[in-house]
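FAQ: What does the model actually see?

It sees only this:
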Amino acid sequence: MTTDFIHLNKTWNAEPNVPDERIEVHDNYLTLSFLVNPWVYEQYDEGQRVELRFYGCTKWRNGLTNDEGWYKGQCRFSTLAPEWGEFYEITGNRLLKQCPDDWQTITKGIGEKHFLFYLKDSTFECEAVSYEFIQR
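And it is asked to produce this:
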């Protein structure tokens, strides 16, 4: 089975230097908020925060692999993911046997979709039913 990546952030991305990501677990969703990139996506202001809200999230992790580690092949998707710094839905083989065991479980069950976001100094992943991009 192959690993496939669906690129989800075509009109926005995280600030490339200090995205200042924050994760919050709520009753029925998880949020990943961060500073948006105003230099490439001029519709955003410098210092503006945006949020990814994951509904039906069963588990998540925010790993230590950064861009240097990704290019050195230290991430399980290093040779597979199209680009560093992007937000993807992963389908097919998610290589979970090679995944670190630092997942935070929210509820029992299996999220229907697997999301992956490469930030400046970390790799965020979660399993959820759906997501929503929210501008603040």
